[in-house]
């Protein structure tokens, strides 16, 4: 095995940072690297499938339905035995011998290694566009580039987006400023060998503007976006190597500005991270991993963090540590909770690992499957064969000294469980902002498992030009295997909207990335900066109705407005997500008209309750309405 090929990319950022362990790690060059034999244990689930993808390392893979035919296509980039490749492959099913048929799409793409990629509907036209970063060379001096490609149906067209040119980093789409379109979070090494972290906000004309956030420059790592504190905006996880060493940080979003929590989530080199609600309590937990300096030069580690109301506590996890690989949550066994895949090297000179850990339903994980491990690797969950369970794609440098791209088919016999469509859509417009709310829903089998929610908003019925759901409006099928854009919130807040009528609907997404049909379509109107409601007011309400509580999320007090068409005895009950009664108010008999009441986040004894999502019921005589409130302390 070529020792330099294995160690050079690992050592480069450490050398540049002049770590005190420099001489110790250089000694690794005199040590042999064995092709460690690795057992492959397959008790019941995954089988490798023959395919025609290039075999890559130092690369990136991303599933996405580029042609709207309902199956997952693939972007792949990296270093192969014959050079650098970047290609898009259309999913054409299987041949008669069980080989997966993927046909390369004709597209002029920058060929990059040390790459990261992601699909997103950047222009809101309902199909997937692509952003890719990486180096056009595989040795120093590197030639970084960040490219965006617009999907024009039959072709992909390069778009001038003026994004930072980076390699050896990460790229994540998300609406960081709550204006409806997709912004970008990018990390990596630039053309001057400087670690960089950058937010690029999308403007109304399709251009991007860099945000001068005080984010530390990070490379050789990972980034993720998700609403960790339940306040309705996207927070960020950034992990990797910077000028001050190795770090993993959570940054909370405050009106578009990302501010680091006062907590370290692992000082990891060649880091990976993922967000997901592994304990089904309604908030996003965190898994982190990467390399830590040790007596073995560098050992891999994995750490699990439980989220409670936006605060994280480390919990015990029995899992093999990895570095220079990937970590990802996904419900591979379709039981409603998130399982875990780890891929990478246990240490610089040691065993490669690819293990799947099954969620035991009691906040623990059990190693259930060992696949062929690799370093300089990437992995993606995705149901490429359309049978309702999550398959796997891995790439990297195996313990046998080979570059590999491996496609695994999930052989579990499952009946896909589709969530029910959400209902109870309500909107509240205030000047140029809108608050959208909907009611919680269940799986089609009635199971109360964790769901995320996916919203689409357009200026025409069925449109996506304001907020794209990246799913098929008619079938509900997702174009990318990922959680919904509203995360676990049952609300979405948008600001700085232009005047006009907007049409919207929402779907639920389970942990296997199976989505419900869309809800019935709602609408709202923004006009002249005034508060406009699509409901018709009259002298007296004609129907019993609840308006969206505001603010939501809230920190100290939220107001619930409701309409009574006739005199009725009113009661208001607050419940936890587990159904425990928190508070009951009994205003008594109230006349027909519009009324309001407030909840200050206290229980029946007057004690403050913790952050989280709370359910409420409003009863007026025999009539009952329900809704949700999100409390953020």
Secondary-structure topology with pairs:
Elements: H1 3-16, H2 22-26, E1 46-49, E2 57-64, E3 73-80, E4 83-94, E5 100-104, E6 113-120, E7 129-135, E8 144-151, E9 156-159, E10 167-174, E11 183-189, E12 195-202, E13 208-211, E14 219-226, E15 235-242, E16 245-254, E17 257-260, E18 269-276, E19 285-294, E20 297-308, E21 311-315, E22 323-330, E23 339-345, E24 352-359, E25 365-370, E26 375-382, E27 391-397, E28 403-410, E29 426-430, E30 433-437, E31 452-458, E32 491-494, E33 500-509, E34 522-526, E35 545-546, E36 558-564, E37 568-575, E38 581-590, E39 593-599, E40 612-620, E41 623-631
Antiparallel strand pairs: 1-28, 2-3, 3-4, 4-5, 6-7, 7-8, 8-9, 10-11, 11-12, 12-13, 14-15, 15-16, 16-17, 18-19, 19-20, 20-21, 22-23, 23-24, 24-25, 26-27, 27-28, 29-30, 30-32, 31-33, 33-34, 35-36, 36-39, 37-38, 37-40, 40-41
Which features does this protein show?
633 residues; mainly beta; Methylamine Dehydrogenase, Chain H; Immunoglobulin-like; 3 domains; four-stranded antiparallel sheet; 47% strand
Question: What's a concise summary of this model?
Answer:
With 633 residues, the protein is mainly β. A four-stranded antiparallel β-sheet has the order 1-28-27-26, with no helix packed on it. The protein has a four-stranded antiparallel β-sheet with strand order 2-3-4-5, with no helix packed on it.
């Amino acid at each position: 095995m070529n020792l330099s090929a294995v160690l050079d990319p690992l050592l480069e950022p450490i050398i540049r940072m002049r770590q005190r362990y420099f001489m110790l790690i250089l000694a690794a060059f005199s040590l042999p690297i064995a092709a460690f034999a690795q057992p492959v244990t397959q008790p019941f689930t995954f089988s490798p499938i023959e395919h025609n993808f290039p075999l890559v390392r130092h690369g990136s893979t991303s599933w996405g339905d580029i042609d709207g035919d309902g199956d997952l296509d693939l972007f792949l980039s990296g270093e192969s035995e014959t050079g650098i490749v970047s290609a898009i492959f259309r999913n054409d099913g299987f041949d008669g011998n069980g080989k997966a048929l993927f046909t390369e799409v004709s597209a002029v793409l920058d060929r990059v290694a040390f790459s990261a990629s992601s699909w997103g509907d950047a222009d809101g036209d309902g199909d997937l566009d692509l952003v890719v970063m990486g180096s056009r060379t595989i040795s120093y001096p590197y030639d970084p580039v960040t490219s965006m490609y617009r999907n024009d149906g039959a072709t992909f067209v390069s778009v001038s987006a003026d994004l930072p040119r980076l390699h050896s980093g990460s790229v994540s789409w998300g609406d960081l400023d709550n204006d409806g379109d997709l912004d970008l979070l990018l990390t990596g090494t630039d053309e001057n060998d400087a670690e960089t972290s950058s937010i690029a906000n999308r403007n109304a004309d399709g251009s991007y503007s860099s945000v001068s956030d005080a984010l530390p420059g990070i490379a050789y790592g990972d980034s993720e976006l998700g609403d960790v504190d339940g306040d309705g905006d996207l927070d960020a996880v950034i992990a990797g190597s910077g000028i001050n060493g190795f770090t993993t940080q959570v940054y909370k979003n405050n009106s578009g500005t990302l501010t680091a929590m006062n907590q370290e989530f692992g000082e990891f080199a060649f880091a990976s991270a993922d967000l997901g609600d592994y304990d089904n309590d309604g908030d996003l937990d965190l898994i982190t991993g990467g390399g830590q300096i040790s007596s073995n030069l560098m050992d891999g580690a994995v750490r699990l963090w439980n989220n409670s109301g936006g605060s994280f506590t480390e919990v015990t996890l029995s899992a093999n540590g990895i570095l220079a690989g990937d970590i990802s949550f996904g419900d591979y066994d379709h039981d409603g909770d998130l399982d875990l895949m780890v891929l990478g090297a246990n240490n610089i000179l040691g065993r490669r690992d690819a293990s799947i850990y099954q969620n035991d339903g009691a906040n623990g994980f059990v190693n259930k499957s060992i696949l062929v491990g690799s370093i300089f690797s990437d992995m993606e969950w995705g149901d490429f064969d359309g049978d309702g369970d999550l398959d796997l794609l891995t790439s990297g440098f195996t313990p046998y000294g080979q570059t590999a791209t491996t496609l695994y088919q999930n052989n579990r016999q499952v009946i896909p469980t589709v969530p029910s469509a959400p209902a109870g859509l309500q909107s509240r417009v205030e000047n140029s902002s809108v608050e959208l709310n909907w009611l919680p829903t269940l799986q089609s089998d009635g199971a109360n498992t964790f769901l995320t929610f996916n919203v689409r908003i357009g200026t025409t019925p069925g449109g996506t030009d304001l907020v794209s759901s990246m799913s098929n409006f008619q079938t509900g099928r997702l174009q990318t295997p990922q959680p919904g854009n509203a995360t676990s919130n049952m609300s979405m807040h948008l600001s700085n909207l232009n005047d006009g009528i907007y049409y919207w609907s929402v779907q639920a997404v389970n942990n296997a990335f199976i989505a419900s049909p869309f809800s019935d379509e709602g609408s709202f109107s923004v006009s002249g900066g005034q508060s406009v409601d699509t409901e018709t007011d009259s002298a007296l309400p004609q129907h019993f109705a609840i308006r969206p509580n505001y603010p939501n999320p809230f920190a100290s007090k939220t107001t619930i407005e409701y309409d009574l068409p006739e005199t009725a005895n009113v009661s208001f009950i607050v419940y936890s997500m587990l159904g425990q009664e928190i508070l009951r108010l009994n205003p008594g008999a109230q006349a027909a008209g519009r009324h309001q009441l407030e909840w200050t986040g206290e229980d029946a004894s007057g004690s403050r309750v913790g952050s989280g999502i709370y359910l409420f019921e409003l009863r007026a005589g025999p009539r009952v309405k329900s809704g949700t409130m999100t409390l953020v302390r």
